[in-house]
Structures are given as structure tokens and as C-alpha cells.
Target: Phosphoribosylglycinamide formyltransferase
Amino acid sequence: MSASTRVAVLASGTGSNLTALLDVAQTPAFPAQIVLVVSNRSQCGALDIARARGVQAVSLPVKEYGGDATARDRAILDTLRTARIELIVCAGYDRVLSDDVLAAYPDAILNIHPSLLPAFGGGMDAVEQALAAGVKVTGCTVHLLKAGAVDAGPIVLQAAVPVEADDDADTLRARIHEQEWRVLPEAVALWATGRLQVNGSKVRILAQPRQREGVR
Ligand code: GRF
Model:
């Protein structure tokens, strides 16, 4: 942990969570700064947002690595290390990170997923799945990424969103997004202030910061 934790956002899509993070990070008291955005896409909203806000934006499509995702992820890791990134935030990143990246950032990769995990994990259609299942409550989850598991890993924060009778995927997704924009920056702040204690599959939120190892 440093005075202001250096954060990279990995994103593939629109980037509304990136915008929320950038907005909150402008608050003087926020304990983290978004210094890098990496995408697996050659173009996407998140890259445009990063460039417009003066944040380093790096596009690393797998086709530039002959389709070798492991080689591309080594390039991601090089980029993260060069930027002295301490915390990675996957905000709509639609690829599974290689074990190399996960091993380099133990308990230092946050992911946001649009359901109350462990319900409706493992796919890109969690909102549609929740509607199809007829649940009355869904929501979003911020969790730490662990090797060998997609949309799984110790849960940091969750927010519940009631499903309305006339919801479709767009209306429900919009209300889930509003909660994501709140809990993701909160989770980043908790991480950056050393208030997350990981015990196996559980995360305890500490009242006081704990000692964290130095910058990678
Ligand atoms: C979010 O709903 C997130 O939970 C999921 O992808 C979406 C990204 O949205 N993993 P945005 O690009 O941040 O708007």
C-alpha cells in the first residue's frame, strides 16, 4: 500500500464502471488513482474514456499475439509492472486472466459481476439468467479473483437489487449498474486502505487498516 494505490482497470466494453471509478478517484480523500486502462479489444468505450480523461490506455488484442492468450497476458503483465500497478480491477473484462497474471497479483485483483454470486456466475448473461429464473432479488458482487475459478473467489461486497415485475434485461441491468458504480469504488478504497483481510474463501472488512507489503 502506498499513499495513493496505483490501480489498473481491465475492461472490454462500455466503461461505465471505469467512469465511476475515475469520478470517485478525483475526490482528494480517495486512497487510489486509476493510472492505466488495459483492454483486450482494439476499440471499446473504456479505451475512449481513458484517453479522454488523460489516463494511459493500452489495447492488447489477442490477434496481435497470433491468437496466443498466454502470450498476450504476458504483455499485460509487463504493462502492469511497467506502470507499477498495485491493484487490478476487472470492470467488464470479458476474458479469463492467465495464471501468470493471477499469480503476480495474489488477492490484488478485484472483479465486478452483475449478480449476487454464487448465483448466475460463469457467463456474460447473468442479468438474463436472473430474469429467466424468476428471482425477486438479484444484484452485483465485487470479489477477488483466484486461479482456476471464473466469477468466484472471496466476496468483498455485494449489493441487492429488487427485480420488478415488468423488468426486462435493459431496465434491470441499468439498476444493477447504479449499484456497481457505488460498490466497486468502495471495494477499491477498502483494498487501498488495507482493510480487507482474506481468510480462505471469506473476506473480513477490518475497522482499522492492516500492514500491507510494499509496492510490487
Ligand atoms: C458490468 O455489469 C459488470 O458487472 C460486468 O460487465 C459490465 C461492465 O459494464 N462484468 P461497464 O462496461 O462498466 O459499463
Observations:
- The mean pLDDT is 95.
